[in-house]
């Protein structure tokens, strides 16, 4: 799972999320909401948190009464997707070239704009996320 900071950067860069069962996310709520609520990681699940699309096209994440605090639903705009390693690799599509284990980090190699780029981080998911962020920025 990637860091909140990287997830926010990916969201700001334009990464769109279409919630599926098993996806993890955090909340991005107004400043008056306690910070500990934003730190919680939630998982989309048919039993507890369901994704609903309204007739107007807005995606709502509905909480089915199993959380420890009162929350009925939030819009997708109030959620920060925390994609996993496999999801990030899939989003890189044909640009992905390799993942290497280095002594103290993982290195993801991708092809962007005809050149090879490498991204290193101790967490493989974070290295994938850094590569995806650069791919999104370069494709603008």
Distance between the termini: 25 Å
Average pLDDT, rounded to a whole number, is 88
Please state the structural category: alpha+beta
Q: Total number of β-strand segments?
A: 9
Strand line-up of the largest beta sheet: 2-1-6
List the secondary-structure elements in sequence, H or E: HEHEEEEEHEEEH
Strand content: 25-35%
Poorly predicted segments? none
- Note the total helix count: 4
Main sheet characteristics: 3 strands, antiparallel
**Helical content, roughly?**
25-40%
CA gyration radius, whole angstroms: 16 Å
Q: Which overall shape is indicated by the principal axes computed on the Cα atoms?
A: elongated
Protein name: Pilus assembly protein CpaE
Organism: Microbacterium candidum
Describe the structure.
- By secondary structure, the protein is α+β, with helices and mostly antiparallel strands.
- It has 4 helices and 9 strands, in the order H-E-H-E-E-E-E-E-H-E-E-E-H.
- The protein has helices at residues 4-13, 35-39, 85-92, 124-138; strands at 24-27, 42-43, 49-53, 59-63, 73-75, 79-81, 96-101, 106-112, 115-121.
- It has a 3-stranded antiparallel β-sheet.
- Strand 3 (49-53) and strand 4 (59-63) form a beta hairpin.
- Helix 1 packs parallel to helix 4 (124-138) and helix 3 (85-92) runs parallel beside helix 4.
- The chain is elongated, with a radius of gyration of 16 Å.
- This is Pilus assembly protein CpaE.
- It comes from Microbacterium candidum.
Topology (elements, then pairings):
Elements: H1 4-13, E1 24-27, H2 35-39, E2 42-43, E3 49-53, E4 59-63, E5 73-75, E6 79-81, H3 85-92, E7 96-101, E8 106-112, E9 115-121, H4 124-138
